[in-house]
Amino acid sequence: MCLTFVPVELLLDILSLALQGHPRPTDVLCVDKSFAELGQRILHSDLRFRTVRQLIRFSEERAVLACPPKTLTISLSGGAASFDVFLHLAVALRRCRMTLTMLEQQEGPHDQTAQQQTQVPLDLLSLCLHSHTRNPSLEHIYEALSMANPKTFVWTGPDPAHHFSTAIVPAATFYLFRAIRTWSDITHITLTNLAFPSDDLGLHAPLARNVPLLPVIPSLRTLSIGQATLLPPSSIAAMICLPGQDHLENIRLVDAYSESIWGPRIRRRDVERAAVALKKAASEEVIAKVRRLVRCEAKTERIMGGDRVEGTLVLD
Length: 316
Prior knowledge:
8-stranded parallel β-sheet; F-box domain-containing protein; elongated; alpha/beta; signal; 8 strands
């Protein structure tokens, strides 16, 4: 059958599969004019970058996108990332924002200043890559991520699940959580392989006792943190106890440690004790809230040493 007579809905499905697995998607677009028109919309609505070079080439283009992106994914093989990956991400998001501005101008006159300050709304912003302790440009993490406004955000480490590694180094975590505070639409957050700031004498102060991990974000429903070190249970408790923190549905801590991986994992009772210390007058109420929201789990065991909890999944 000639592709000209294939229904558009079916052709979209065919193109989506072809583009998703093709090492050079532009080759698919060159097959036919209809492929180019439909394929560009598919690619631009679901931006995927598998190499830093792809991200750079996209950010260097000045043409308006076929449509605003709905998702943006950076998944680097082996997690290899240059120091400037977030600088390139910021430029890529500016290109996306330019498309949004053009569409708004076509729909009618708007305040230009307001347009220039608009974040790029995304259904999903997903990262699978390493950050680097010695990277002098980690502030680009905040600059880039604060240009987006995702509903779902994921940053995972690229190593196998059984390999305990740190993909989000402490300074990167500092800038990441600064950026999260700017997201008004964020609903679901998943972070793995991260270490929280801990050096009292460093530029990025550690999480102080009883300081909430995040402020009240009305849209936020779930927070999942896995393979984390130096996470104070009191910061989780303080977040839960904030006035107006009524929309959270679940906080999941998997292999989360208050110190190093050689110490004990965080148990739910650790968060309960910290919450009671904050809200002594309403201890029963706050314990019930912690038990409703917090789930602590053990997933990855060390070959030897550390906090061993064989046969136990949930850590109460």
